[in-house]
């Protein structure tokens, strides 16, 4: 069993899709190990997206992710990291995510792609520490 860090980003919360995302996680057979509604401060968002520092979209991304409440979750289960990435779909909701995925079903623009999921075991460990330091 492994753990992954999931965010329902501010667009997903604003649009009332928290329950939808959690339902898909649970139906997949994954378990919730932690869950919190919060508004991220800039330092947290910059740490979370440090790998993108310097890219053209970085400032917009940090503005967006700190712009309203989000839901942070730790999701646990066998193959939890790739399993949630599969549920999320590709980064671009139209060009990459297919119907049946969260982004494919509910998203259009790349910045407003509803959810985040850790992309590797190393990322998951790093990100869980950022969002849930006491876990
Ligand atoms: P996350 O789960 O959020 O990390 O998405 P990802 O792993 O599918 O994509 P990646 O880590 O490459 O990018 C992080 C986030 O930056 C994406 O989810 C998008 O919200 C945003 N992003 C990525 N590429 C672009 C881009 O070309 N333009 C804009 N505006 N945003 C982008
Ligand atoms: Mg990523």
TrEMBL record:
Its EC number is 2.7.4.6. Belongs to the NDK family. Residues 1-135 form the Nucleoside diphosphate kinase-like domain. It is found in: Cytoplasm. Homotetramer. This is Nucleoside diphosphate kinase. GO terms for molecular function: ATP binding; metal ion binding; nucleoside diphosphate kinase activity. The lineage of its organism: Bacteria, Bacillati, Actinomycetota, Actinomycetes, Pseudonocardiales. GO terms for cellular component: cytoplasm. Keywords: ATP-binding, Cytoplasm, Kinase, Magnesium, Metal-binding, Nucleotide metabolism, Nucleotide-binding, Phosphoprotein, Transferase. The keyword Phosphoprotein applies. Pfam families: NDK. It comes from the Bacteria. InterPro entries: NDK-like_dom, NDK-like_dom_sf, Nucleoside_diP_kinase. GO terms for biological process: CTP biosynthetic process; GTP biosynthetic process; UTP biosynthetic process. The keyword Kinase applies. ATP binds at residues 9, 57, 85, 91, 103, 113. Its cofactor is Mg(2+). Major role in the synthesis of nucleoside triphosphates other than ATP. The ATP gamma phosphate is transferred to the NDP beta phosphate via a ping-pong mechanism, using a phosphorylated active-site intermediate. NCBIfam families: PRK00668.1 (NF001908). SUPFAM superfamilies: Nucleoside diphosphate kinase, NDK (SSF54919). It is an enzyme of class 2 (transferase). CDD domains: NDPk_I (cd04413).
């Amino acid at each position: 069993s492994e753990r992954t860090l999931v965010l329902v980003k501010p667009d997903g919360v604003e649009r009332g899709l928290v329950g939808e995302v959690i339902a898909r996680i649970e139906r997949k057979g994954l378990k919730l190990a932690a869950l919190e509604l919060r508004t991220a401060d800039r330092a947290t968002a910059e740490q979370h997206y440090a790998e993108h520092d310097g890219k053209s979209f970085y400032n917009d991304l940090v503005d967006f992710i700190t712009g309203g409440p989000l839901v942070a979750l730790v999701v646990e289960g066998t193959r939890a990291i790739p399993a949630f990435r599969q549920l999320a779909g590709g980064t671009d909701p139209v060009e990459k995510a297919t119907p049946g995925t969260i982004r494919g079903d509910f998203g259009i623009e790349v910045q407003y792609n509803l959810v985040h999921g850790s992309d590797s075991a190393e990322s998951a460990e790093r990100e869980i520490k950022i969002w849930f330091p006491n876990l």
